[in-house]
Amino acid sequence: MNRVSVTIAVNGQPFTASIEPRQHLADFLRETVGLTGTHLGCEQGVCGACTVEIDGRPQRSCIAFAAACDGSSVRTVEGFDDDPTMQELREAFSTHHGLQCGFCTPGMLITSRDIVRRCGETDERTIREELSGNLCRCTGYMGIVAAVGSVCRGKAPQVKAPPAATPVRAAAVHLPEPAMAATAPRSAARPSAAPAPAAAAFGASAATTAGDGAGWTAIDQSITVAATPDAVWEALGDVRRVASCLPGAEVETLEGEALTGRMSVRFGPIKARFAGEGTVRRDEPARTGRVTGAGRDSGSGSQAAGEVVYRVAAAERPDSTTVAVTIRYRLTGTLAQFSRGALVQDFVRRMAETFAANLSASLAPGADGIPPQAVKPAEMNVLAMLVSVVAGRIRRLFAGR
Amino acid sequence: MKAPVFDYHRASSVQDALAALADGRGDAKAMAGGCSLGPMLNLRLARPARVVDLRHVPELRRVEETEDRLVIGALWTHAEIEDGALPDITNGFLPSVAHGIAYRAVRNRGTIGGSVAHADPAADWITTLLTLDARLLIHAPDGERQASIDTFMLGGYSTELGDDELLSGFILPKLSGRGRWAYHKICRKTGEFAKAIGAVLHDPDRGLVRVVCGAIERTPILLEETSAALGRSSPEAAADLAPVLKGVLKDEIDRRLADHDAVFRQMHHTAVSRALAELGSK
Amino acid sequence: MSHTGIGARVRRKEDARHLIGRGRFVGDIRMPGLRDVAFLRSTYAHARIVAITRPAGSEGSVYTVDDLAGLSPIVTRSTIPGYKESTHWPLASGKVRFVGEPVVMAVAASRAEAEDLCDAVQVEFDPLPVIASSEAGRAPDAPRVHEEWPDNLFLESGFDSGVDEVARTAPVKVTREYRTARQCMHPMEGKGVLAYWDYQASQLVVVTSTQVPHMIRTGLAECLGLDQSRIRVAPPDVGGGFGYKCVLQPEEVLIAWLALTRKTPFRWVEDRREHLTAGANTRQHQYRVTAYADERGRLLGLDAEVMVDTGAYSVWPFTACLEPSQIAGNLPGPYDFQAYRCKTYTVATNKPAFTPYRGVARTGVCFAMELTIDAIARAVGREPVDVRAENLVTAGQMPFTNVTRKHFDSGDYPASLQRAREMIGMEAVRARQGSGEPDGRHIGLGFATYTEQSAHGTTVFSSWGLSVIPGYDQASVKITPDGGVEVRAGIHTIGQGLETTLAQVASEILTIPIERITVTLGDTATTPYSTGAYASRGIVMSGGATSKAAQTVAGQVRRIAAHLMKCAPEEVELRDGRIFAGNRSIAFADVGFAWYMRPDLLPTDVDSRGLEATEAYKPAVDSGVFSYATHAAVVAVDPETGMVEILDYVIVEDCGRRVNPMIVEGQAYGGTAQGIGTALFEESPYDDLGQPLASTLLDYLLPGPTELPSIRMDHFETLSPYSAHGVKGVGEGGAIAPPAAIVNAINDALAPLGAELTEVPATPERILAAILAARGRRSAGQENAA
């Protein structure tokens, strides 16, 4: 197992240990050093129970990894017994009933001490704002706010902001001019193709989404192609060609109506790789095709299922064709357990637009069937859409921090 | 909720970091403060084989200055920006935005570069940098390049940054003495991600009159027509939302956010119009 | 000497250890050979388990239900006719019934490695149709959560005193539908359990974060097939309970089974994602209410139909019946009317098992009733507060037995409303509303009055059909040789401060200061029996038992002291921590010394129980003592964003004698904070596939310091005629009224816009949607008029 050696000064005493890089600082303190005052309330960086001082500043020990704190100095609630401000806070918390179950208390005290030192005497609104990164479920914060207020009273701020950094004069450094420096992004060389602009060869794509009450979400997408309906229907019969319009897809087998494949997708730091199987059915008289499939991402244990229905019809313009596509998908598992609807819709919209643009280009007269942005032959468009949605559902996670 | 196994590499320089990323062959992930990546690792949503720690790369904390611009490295924390550790070239805009990000304990570790690279549409820096017309510095194996914020971000959590590239810094315009800004964020909770952001910059001396609508679950948008309308009037006219400006804004929001519901549009319209009003009363 | 007995605002004995980071929670305990446990939980809401494939080399580290030799499932019985039992295997057997249900248990040297093992296990599921709502569960052709059942109803029950006559004749009729969201309780410490085999005592020791240790022992014994004397449940510090930890947890059963089987220590600590997904288990009600009133708004009758989204299993021991029984029994609230019908449907769904949460059912009930009162007031064009006042049971009617046979023991409900009205400054708020706000927001005022049946005992619980019925709670009091006191009780301290308040009760009787009183709680090896900390019963039941035991010990002390001081026992008085006979006094230590060290000094007829006593207690009338309160809120609603700010919040409460006023206030503040969460923020949404859509604290918003107001509070102190010292319970009350008071205030603010909200949480989106809908209706109306 990969391990790293770290030395962290904990409450003034250097502590050296060989640890797994994945161990976060709170577990290091609790399990390795044996100081259990630092509590784990969420391990999502939200509740503040694990707040400790790292190099003099309060930080979350559940999302700071111990390996990243090698060489740092850490102070936990156990390390303030000789600190007069902390003594005052402890008295005040008890006097004002600032704790009930006591679980949030260590993190609350670390934050409170920082407030006293940075803000000094201040108003209740400021104290409440400054405390807002520490959740308490018992007290309604009444006693905590009163306690911190009582300790702040009469004190001047004890911490001064550091002076502003002195900038290097740019005459001495190379600073590309914006006007000339718009180097093209290297998206064409990137394995996960960026979604193409919505505009297809001609004719605009339109996407709409709707839920149906059975866990399915449907997206309608429509493209117009400068080719006859016969030619387009024929071309759509080539499942591999159609699927190649979605980046990240791979077909493994295709036998009659049955296919198996994989679909890889990434969404920020999240990568999912769904393996699954499906069927392809084509209704010649109705000029309607249906691809269904289901797959599982073994990493997250999430599952996706879906179908694509397309209908080919003559467009208004002569010798051109409208392909109406309805994509339905549904998702279960860890990756589904977030909700940020608009973010999902945008992700799906972008995937749908990529698909439409690639399909449109692929079907255009003279095209060789390989969409311009596809890096490798792709398949399983159903799964591709599913996966994009999967990732899209990862909601409001932790940006901006 | 413990992170999956990964290797840890502490980068000593930009070149070292780039080499470590390239060596990861798409399975390495750069980490700055880790305030976004940390929870995703704990949740096992992110499972990189290797984490490349950028916190000890000195170049990522550079501060350089030209006549009209400031260049900063990506690793400045929100708290440092809040506390005025950088020269104030935005008349207080950056420190004010920094103060409103999450909570102090998060601001003490989270960085501006980490936030922008993570590209959550509801986060503050993306919208702020678009409002400032800032540019991004990107280090790739073959050298340094620049990007503009609106093309850099492709959508939620999605950017043009390659697996082997680093977001290394930002080029910020220096505002003139007369430059004003306003930033209105609608949140249900202190420190929570925004439901809507309206941001306005008015600095005709620098040719910057920009109205931005953010937290729209995709790349924030520059409201070009509203910006132009503001440019034609005075900032004071924004205080009571002069009817002409109001009409332009309403039309533009309704059009640009047409695929969102009425409640969503209402919320964003309010954020931007309040930012305009605050600009006018500054 | 300062008084530390009943009524003293003393600092808590619990505080010191927490303030220096030396609290001892389950997760803080390490033992040699300890193995950590992780669970692979279902990702499907409803599916057959087709196959489970374990990674190579995982023998002895990965368990499925088939490995649980000797273990019986959790089956919760009830005597209520028509109730259907569920069979709840702690690891899913055959099929899974909710997302988050444990399927596989993995053990390893660390939690991270146990999670790695879970990742390596492959479970093949065959998805089944999902019951994701009460409506879906009641559909005629709905698939079954439990196949052996004829439908998806745990119970169909209700109350009917006849409403047809009133329905025909009442001049005013108001109908509304209400919804309360599914929630998680979120104690900051989740569940956690560590178990090991104690060879010396030949006992299975279960260190678990629970509110009800003695009941857990009974439940574990049933599931493990073990004598209760072979099990010791020893709860450590508990980081909040709120009801979440008042039932037997499947994980407790599993960790206990591991330790019993393997005879080595095992530990599992719930993480926040587990809590958010597998623990979304409470509050979700739907109401359809029709109220009948006269032209002044005097209630004539109430007709209600209520559905509870109960989840897949019936929790032990409280059953799936507790919630509907509380709904039907409490919906009439503090009001006096006689025509009442309430039909309840307790629907099994593919969600976690419904668990009683602080305020049990009454938060939803109060929301439905109090919004209805305001709707009646609007219908008759009167101030809601006046309509409310005219309907409340009055002080002169006490004790009062209402339509559902609730026996209100004492109090002045209209006075609490009147006092809240004064404190909130209703007239000033109305004047301010008339002049409008400079920032364009709308101000609204709302009230809610409720009763909190606390410490309800044997008669009430037996009417709910439970198999475990609380009766006598016990406590022991003992004088130490040096004159200190030890109190032991089987109830547990979970943040509510019982270490302190039980010491205060003992101090009240013995006059010994609480600094010299040690309180030991919860450990089944060292404390006498209590069913535990729930139903706002601690201070009434364990307080009563402590008082009684202390009085017995006081008698023992008096007799020995009288002998030592050569006077009659009647001449002996305990005062200021000493023992007086006239002007002479001796110390408790003198009596302790005599009993323990100098038996030659004792009277020949000394009480051979010595200086200790265990007593059992229940109130003379055990149907519960009724605390009550009125909450009043002033809110500002931003019509452009739907955001709500609480401008003022007032509580006027009466919980009888306050043992420690500081703790009473803390309970009320904390409960109110949770109620405000229910009102404005907290929600565990599910999609149609039964997937929980909140798995982080960024999805599920808990109110923080800036979202909560600075609460103003006043107290009445009407002693209960039935309880020792006149105390009533106070733990739950705060959580009951806020959704009602706040949404009434929001609706008051929205009234000029024609919008009305009937659902919590009152999110900005819901409020904006209501405003936009009202705007749409109005412009449509104007068009029609034109």
From TrEMBL, chain A:
- The answer, when asked if Nucleotide-binding is one of the entry's keywords, is no
GO MF assignments: anaerobic carbon-monoxide dehydrogenase activity
Q: What is its EC number?
A: 1.2.7.4
Q: Which residues does the annotated region (Disordered) include?
A: 278-302
Q: Which InterPro entries match?
A: 2Fe-2S-bd, 2Fe-2S-bd_dom_sf, 2Fe-2S_ferredoxin-like_sf, 2Fe-2S_ferredoxin-type, 2Fe2S_fd_BS, Beta-grasp_dom_sf, CO_DH_gsu, Diverse_Oxidoreductases
List the SUPFAM superfamilies. Answer: 2Fe-2S ferredoxin-like, Bet v1-like, CO dehydrogenase ISP C-domain like
**EC category name:** oxidoreductase
Record-linked Gene3D superfamilies: 3.10.20.30, 3.30.530.20, [2Fe-2S]-binding domain
Which one Pfam family would you cite for this protein? Answer: Fer2_2
Keyword set for this entry? 2Fe-2S, Iron, Iron-sulfur, Metal-binding, Oxidoreductase
Keyword Iron in record: yes
Indicate the segments forming the 2Fe-2S ferredoxin-type domain, all copies.
4-80
**Protein name (record):** Carbon-monoxide dehydrogenase small subunit
The scientific name of the source species is Azospirillum picis
TrEMBL record, chain B:
- At the top level, the lineage of the source is Bacteria
Where does the FAD-binding PCMH-type domain lie?
1-177
Select a single GO molecular function from the record's annotations and give it: anaerobic carbon-monoxide dehydrogenase activity
Write the signal peptide boundaries: none
UniProt keywords (A-Z) are:
FAD, Flavoprotein, Oxidoreductase
Q: What does the record give as EC number?
A: 1.2.7.4
Keyword presence, Kinase: no
- Whether Flavoprotein counts among this entry's keywords is yes
Q: Name one Pfam family in it.
A: FAD_binding_5
* Uppermost EC category: oxidoreductase
Family matches, as InterPro entries:
CO_DH_flav_C_dom_sf, Diverse_Substr_Oxidored, FAD-bd_PCMH, FAD-bd_PCMH-like_sf, FAD-bd_PCMH_sub1, FAD-bd_PCMH_sub2, Mopterin_DH_FAD-bd
- Any idea what this protein is called? Carbon-monoxide dehydrogenase medium subunit
TrEMBL record, chain C:
A Gene Ontology molecular function term of the record: anaerobic carbon-monoxide dehydrogenase activity
- Pfam name, any one: Ald_Xan_dh_C
InterPro entries, per database record: Ald_Oxase/Xan_DH_a/b, Ald_Oxase/Xan_DH_a/b_sf, Ald_Oxase/xanthine_DH-like, AldOxase/xan_DH_MoCoBD1, AldOxase/xan_DH_MoCoBD2, AldOxase/xan_DH_Mopterin-bd_sf
* Enzyme Commission numbers on file: 1.2.7.4
Q: Where is the signal peptide?
A: none
Q: Where is the Aldehyde oxidase/xanthine dehydrogenase a/b hammerhead domain?
A: 20-129
Give the main EC class. oxidoreductase
Arranged from A to Z, the UniProt key words for this protein are: Molybdenum, Oxidoreductase
Transcription regulation listed as a keyword? no
Q: What is this protein called?
A: Carbon-monoxide dehydrogenase large subunit
Source taxonomy: Bacteria, Pseudomonadati, Pseudomonadota, Alphaproteobacteria, Rhodospirillales
